Amino acid sequence: MSEPKPHIALGLTDHEFDLICEKMGREPNGVELAMFSLLWSEHCAYKHSRKLLKNLPTEGPRVVMGPGENAGAVDIGNGFSIAFKVESHNHPSAVEPFQGAATGVGGILRDVIALGARPIAILDSLRFGEPDTERTHYLVDGVVRGIGHYGNSMGIPTVGGEIYFEPPYEQNPLVNAMCVGIARTDEMVRAAAAGAGNKVVLFGSLTGRDGIGGASVLASAELDEGDDAKRPTVQIGDPFEESKLLECCQELLAADLMVSLQDLGAAGLTSSAGEMASAGGTGIDIDVGLVPLREADMEPFEIMVSESQERMLAVVEPDKVDEVLALCTKWQTASAVIGEVTDSATFRILKNGETVGEIRVDDLVDGCPLYDLNPEEPAEWTYPNRETIPANASASDIALALLASPSIASKRWAFEQYDSIVGSRTAHRAGAADAAVLNIPESNRAIAVAIDGNGRRVACDPFQGTIEATLECAANLAVVGAEPLGVTNCLNFGNPEKPGVAWQLGRSIDGLAEACRALEAPVVGGNVSLYNETPQGPIYPTPVVGMVGELPDPARVAGEPWKEGDAIALVGPFDPSLAGSELEKQRGQLGKGLPEVAIYPVREAIELVREAVRSGLIRIVTDVSDGGIATALAELAISSGIGCDAHLTAVLAKRDCSAEDALFGEGPGGFILAGEKTDLEKLGGQGVEVEVIGQARGNEVIVTASDRRVEILVEEAEAAFESLEDRIEKDQAGLTH
Amino acid sequence: MIQARVLIRPKEGILDAQGKAVEGALPALGFSGIEHVRIGRIVELSASDTDQLDELCQKLLANPLIEDYEIETISG
Amino acid sequence: MIQARVLIRPKEGILDAQGKAVEGALPALGFSGIEHVRIGRIVELSASDTDQLDELCQKLLANPLIEDYEIETISG
Amino acid sequence: MRWGVLQFPGSCDERDALNACQIAAVALATEPRGAGGGVGEAPSSARNVVGDLTDPASSPRLVWHEETDLSDVDGIVVPGGFSYGDYLRAGAIARFSPAMTAVAEFAAAGGPVLGICNGFQVLCESGLLPGALLTNERTRFICRQGDLIVGDADSPFLSGYEPGQRISIPFKHQSGRFFAPPELLEEIESNNQVAFRYAPGQNPNGSLNDIAGVTNEAGNVIGLMPHPEHAVEAFAGSTDGLALFQGPAIAAAGAGA
Ligand SMILES: Nc1ncnc2c1ncn2[C@@H]1O[C@H](COP(=O)(O)OP(=O)(O)O)[C@@H](O)[C@H]1O
Ligand SMILES: [Mg+2]
Questions:
Q1: Helix intervals (H) in A295-335
Q2: Among A64, A71, A74, D198, which one is most buried in terms of CB atoms within 10 A?
Q3: pTM here?
Q4: pLDDT band for position A378 (50/70/90)?
Q5: Do A732 and B21 touch (CB under 8 A)?
């Protein structure tokens, strides 16, 4: 008979358990073991990624807070900073899409609120399987409603995002949410606990058994089998509570009542109190008997690891405690002093005054071993292929199929479920491709925000693919005249203990580092989500890049529809290829490898476009991305209701590519600009390729590349582009709220 | 204390959007023969007396313009 | 046709955000002595047989991870 | 005139409304015409009604839901958002707040009261406006720029518009389907209490008779689902909402002249 080993059930290896015993000089008790198991988990300790993340450039003149804080922050002048971070909530959303997505938004908002910032925008980056299964319909519906529910109810606009549909995400969808907030730079709070004798105040929702999950193996015999239902693993979001929490935090901040502030996320009190103490080099005492509970009979370990949502932890000087509690009462939110900062360097758990656990802060927070990966490049393409476009389809049929492809088709049906204007800052709601613009009158300018990632291309080549995603993000900012200030990212990968995934992760981070260096855009924060695998295999490696940029004038952003007679130009060192493209996917021909990206010429094109938009010379711009030039032109035609006639002969000649490459090929560094021909020509002669390729006119999209020609009615194109909603809606009843 | 259960339903004749959405979703999910779906709210609570409960329903739990309510007391 | 009524409630131990907010607001609204407020959904429908009701609840009407449901058949 | 903007736990467009009141007042004080979509000359005496906007005593202020003294404000906005999370029923809980009791008295005395979105729901729930708002026909939240047609209700709030005028105002809500039983609907129509309708073909939620906003019988209380406070600055795409916030001042100036 084998002895059940609780540490194994909790996800710790024998080696890690031995290390814990060694550090403590004894075996941990149940409370301590629960705490270790969480802080030494991948999620909290980054044990498989931390070494790699050290390669990212994190410094720059505008950085106010970098990795290590709850969110990153960059200076936008006049005493204000923009705080932002992206985070994943993939597994919870796979289990319960509505609540998973909602609490994902709630969690990332709290990270930004914890800096003392007021959130001003949300973006979401979503990945699902192909939209032809009941499961995908259910996930899409729940996730989109969940994000809307939380953001809308909180009064934070969701201004942009992206949604891709690819088979490897079928069982393991990705839900990444990014939050952007504004704060007075000198009022921003750090998470570090300071000052022995200061009080620890917990406020917000009551603590229940939410998210205890695996730790329930530690439950004493009092609760037997049938009581499992009492330990819900699904967390429920309560945006109303969070909205009160936000206003309360803002008032606490304005009255200068807190020494430090920290949100409670994964691993609840254990991680927030532990990390506060670690960052401050202090000790901390928490008495679980003082924690306001939703259910009376909770055990100490349950209270320490509970992941109940909508809670914050503050360190407060003793003489300010009454004022803090009074403000919490004003905002109708529960609050209590639950402990004290000490100079003991230990994290002590008490129950009504009696010690029930005691761990050295360093052992708990920084003691987890960091692992080296064993990367090995897979010899072949390891993901499935399937054919959805016949090999002999005409160029026009291909164009329509690409426009209707779920990853390219209009996502208006999703974004219209999000309040994109609350807060009165939204100058430009992000459409499918480019960036959102937010007015920042506080510093007399505007910011642009974008989020991008293309797992399929990263799967083809993790290094080049990640560079492309980063460049695309910068290109999206350029389209609205913005210059990157800082980068956040979420690395969604499979199991890093597998050599192939380890290789993807390492190469991807190298690509991110290289692109950010080239753009001089420091990485100020991020998140890593590993083990995104099911028996069907890992997801596509999916680094999601979020960027914040600034621009001088929110009224001067491109994004207008073109007019009859406007000239159309292709700008940039765009070198189209079908490798990793949407068309190659639809033909079932995906394979390894992407063409090498010449980063600096792309950067020059980005800068040229940015300046052209800023100067007001150009008002119609889009970057060429999924589906290539033909798709980009069709999308512009759809948005204006006016067709075009374009010839890609010059593209073919200069770049030595095939007609299909020219029409549908993808890659970084291409922009479509439109306007007066003389204005477009003014952009030439600055070292960046500028070629007039046609004219806006008529009711047809005509794009010719030697012997291949796309010729479709604008209304046909539009019908294809708007077709996703019908495909996705039909079996949804929307009973989630 | 009394334990009560208040059932609140959309008034007859008013389009019940949620009920309709559920009906609409049924065929795609393979359900047949299900009709007249109406969706309402159930509020369970303990109250000190029945008068108070009635007032609570009229003033807060239901909007008489659009909803009917029914009180079931479970125990007294 | 069978008339059925499905009561759907947040599971024991799961946060009932609605019930909590309503309960919390009551004293300020002048209602005292009201406690243990739980808010759920009620779905009423006609079905040709009861066999599919359970599946219907699991798949569409309730989320078994976070909600309990109870089916009452009213007439046959 | 000085606006008070109510704030409930869970309100979220209250700062937007405050901002709109301020911008509308400044525009009225500095531009002779009702800015953005407003028609006709704003009487020059409207400048006096607006007051000195650098003086905190005349700039708009938030009114906490527990406040009962409204004597320092001349108009009330019940803003949008999700008061009390919209749990139970949108607007159902907020209407019991002490501030709403004060607003009811303020309205009974003829004071101008504007309810936007959640504020409209609160005013309907509290009986200050007729009708009720139901979940959108498609059950989803929807956020989109749309057109409204100004109704022929006799309300000071509409004095900056012409009846029949088409204006562009965003809407965003999940429970915006206006409903009234047949007799009440008939009454609303025959009393000319319809303040705004969705432009033909643009009804986003299944509202009866395309109704987007109504007034009370006296006309001093108005509510609408769309968000005029999000249509007051050019960068946001429309300034057609300004005139609504200027209406009472224009009307007061006209009456005083
Ligand atoms: N991919 C990444 N790139 C840069 N910084 C990262 C990345 N992943 C995590 N970080 C940083 O590591 C710290 C810990 O992250 P996380 O555990 O997600 O924080 P929290 O517990 O506050 O949500 C944060 O400061 C975060 O910004
Ligand atoms: Mg945090």
A1: 300-305, 321-330
A2: A71
A3: 0.95
A4: very high
A5: yes
